[in-house]
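User: Please look over both lines:
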Amino acid sequence: MKIEVQKLVKVRVRQHVNPLSKKYQTPVSPPDWTKIYAQTTQPLHLDIGCARGEFLFEMARLQPNWNFLGLEIREPLVEKAKVLVSELGLSNLHFLFCNVNNSLKPLLSSFPSETLQQVTIQFPDPWFKKRHGKRRVVQPELVDTLATYLIDGGEVFLQSDVEIVAQEMCDRFDEHSAFYRQGRDWLTMNPLPVSTEREISTISRGEPVYRALFVCR
């Protein structure tokens, strides 16, 4: 599976896309989910900033009783991933090109109620410069939207190889009354059955990964 994904979705794209630019200010229109997923009422796992989608392809294969949705702002990656979904005939996986900071609410509101059960935000663009902080994906509005649509007990898994980015994401969720963090220290292990390529690469270099798990109440 991983070889096939790399073979079909490897494409040159810009590493940094400014979500505040005019091009990305139109919210996406939700598709008809009944034409995408074989079972629309299955639990939904949302991966925000899914990049090429290797993580989701493997998760969809391992967990056929879940639906998976990857959101990505770099359109060429989404188009290539959608081709592979079709090639593999996966009826529990979909990718959408969008700016999550203006499209998340309309997308989640279009799903059957109480289907969103798990969210992952893994290695988002760090936007190191202070003046670029508003470009980071985890903003208070995003956290509030997830609080609205996640089921009671639903989980948000965060990880980054940049500690200040990981800490800021955690701070955003800590500040919201709907979420509580499991433990106060960084998780030493990934609780999911699949690791992203970035995670594997970071660990192979002997560098730390900063992980945290939040639960919606």
The mean pLDDT is 90. DSSP finds seven helices and seven strands in the chain. The chain has one domain: 2-7+36-216.
